[in-house]
Q: What sequence folds into this?
């Protein structure tokens, strides 16, 4: 356990030190469960989103994209069940007054609880296991009853009275509702035929009580969701295909397969057909990275009922009309990022007993692809040549120019941000053969490459 905590702390520390992730509003003492991405974090997050979009939309002729707004008609959240049922079970420690997620406490001792359980069901499980549960803060065993607390974040958008809380506009708790609301628009405009999918990347908000584990669970977060509309008879067949595709996606992304596993949900909500999560082996253990769920026709039926609109599909070939069933894949950018950071974090013992910290990101996810150095910063001809190479390569890749300190220090810095290739311009470049040193992040091996061949060389390596 100690070792795992160490790894988490090391990742958090590197993420801060190297500008991947900052706690929000740090100058004001932080703002709970909210994080900001720094200069390398935003590159990493963007690369993750590009990879997801490419696999989900660009390479699929049956899936189209969407970008719906964060705000939706408040009825959306009544129809979806979020106003009535989207809640976490909370208890208070009677000793230290910490507010605790009861489902998490149960999970920690191996008792499967579900946020969809009713207050009574959760309290029954809680009572049966109270003697095994200790407050994570103070270690005492006195708790209040579990109460369910709604997770939707409210706002006064469009309401200019003082009692807007009675009739709030919600910040979306998940992006997929925007997909359901646009189902009809997409069918009418995108020339899609069932089965087809709609994909979206966007922010969502949840009033999480306990923020746990860094960027794993945050109150503001970004989702990448795909909803796939099928014929009722084909739902499970398509579901199996989607599960395979999503597993393959993580392998293609460069995640180590031994760090991934399937987790099957035992307590399904009444409308769900089947639900699996892809779990990742985070420093705190295997936890949900992505949900792949078969949801029946619940979502469209609910919105049809609440809106009074027909959300059917007319099959022109068979003249059949039906409400499509939906299978979904849903993953967070932050959770993917934490998985990628965990997968990449490597400590290596060097010959001189020094420890090298290197982020072995898959090359396509690396925030910076190439760093260019002049061997010395006070030799003008080296600097001019290095700048020339940098200006040329930055047209193709996210590049960095660095002339600070010695080359060894620059390598260490680039290793910690996971830059796959470092190029050094030295005296041989200028005086002898117009070649540069290219150093490989993972092997630390160096080779001389002719400047005119650099672009081809890198294109080949970074493919
Ligand atoms: Zn306590």
A:
């Amino acid at each position: 356990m100690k070792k795992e905590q160490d790894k988490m702390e090391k990742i958090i520390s590197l993420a801060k030190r190297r500008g991947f992730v900052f706690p929000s509003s740090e100058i004001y003492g932080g703002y709970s469960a909210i994080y900001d991405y720094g200069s390398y974090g935003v590159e990493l997050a963007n690369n993750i989103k590009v990879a997801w979009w490419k696999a989900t939309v660009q390479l699929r002729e049956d899936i189209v994209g969407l970008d719906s707004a964060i705000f939706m008609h408040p009825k959306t959240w009544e129809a979806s069940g979020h106003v009535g049922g989207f809640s976490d079970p909370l208890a208070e420690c009677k000793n230290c007054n910490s507010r605790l997620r009861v489902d998490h406490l149960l999970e920690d001792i191996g008792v499967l609880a579900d946020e969809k359980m009713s207050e009574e069901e959760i309290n029954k499980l809680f009572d049966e296991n109270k003697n095994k549960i200790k407050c994570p803060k103070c270690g005492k065993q006195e708790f209040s009853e579990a109460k369910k607390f709604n997770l939707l974040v409210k706002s006064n958008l469009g309401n200019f009275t003082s009692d807007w809380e009675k009739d709030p506009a919600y910040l979306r708790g998940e992006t997929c509702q925007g997909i359901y609301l646009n189902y009809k628009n997409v069918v009418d405009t995108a020339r899609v035929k069932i089965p087809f999918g709609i994909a979206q990347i966007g922010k969502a908000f949840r009033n999480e009580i306990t923020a746990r584990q860094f960027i794993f669970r945050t109150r503001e977060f970004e989702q990448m969701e795909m909803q796939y509309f099928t014929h009722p008879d084909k739902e499970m067949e398509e579901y199996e295909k989607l599960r395979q595709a999503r597993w393959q996606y993580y392998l293609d992304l460069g995640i180590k397969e031994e760090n991934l596993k399937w987790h099957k949900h035992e307590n399904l909500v009444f409308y769900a057909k089947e639900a699996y999560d892809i779990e990742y082996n985070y420093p705190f253990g295997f936890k949900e990275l992505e949900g792949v769920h078969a949801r029946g026709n619940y979502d469209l039926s609910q919105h049809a009922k609440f809106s009074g609109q027909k959300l059917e599909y007319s099959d022109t070939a068979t003249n059949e009309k039906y409400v499509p069933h939906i299978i979904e894949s849903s993953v967070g950018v932050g959770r993917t990022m934490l998985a990628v950071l965990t997968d990449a974090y490597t400590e290596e013992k060097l010959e001189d007993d020094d420890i090298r910290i290197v982020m072995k990101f898959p090359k396509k996810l690396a925030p910076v692809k190439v760093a260019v150095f002049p061997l010395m910063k006070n030799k003008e001809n080296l600097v001019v040549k290095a700048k020339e190479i940098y200006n040329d390569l930055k047209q193709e890749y996210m590049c960095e120019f660095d002339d600070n300190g010695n080359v060894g220090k620059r390598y260490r810095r680039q290793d910690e941000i996971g830059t796959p290739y470092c190029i050094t311009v030295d005296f041989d470049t200028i005086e002898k053969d117009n070649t540069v040193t290219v150093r490989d992040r993972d092997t630390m091996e160096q080779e001389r490459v002719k400047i005119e061949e650099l672009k081809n060389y890198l294109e080949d390596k970074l493919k």
Remarks:
- Residues 93, 95-96, 98, 135, 137-138, 140 surround zinc ion (CB under 6 Å).
- The two ends are 38 Å apart (CA to CA).
